[in-house]
Amino acid sequence: MINVVRRSQILGLMELDSATASRFGTVEEVWIDDRGQVVYLGTSEGYTPLEQVSVIGPDAVLTYSPTLLPQTALNLRRLYRLPVRLSMTDALGWVEDFLFDWETGNIAAFILSGDIAAPFGGRAVLYPEDVEVIEAEAVVLREGAQERLKSEPEGLKGFLSEKSQQVKNLVKTIAHRLQSLVSPHDRPEVVRVKIKEVSDELAASGQHDKNALQQATEFLQDEWESFQQSLNRASERVKRALDAAWNRTSKKS
Question: What is the rounded CA–CA span in Å between residue 234 and residue 222?
Answer without folding.
Answer: 20
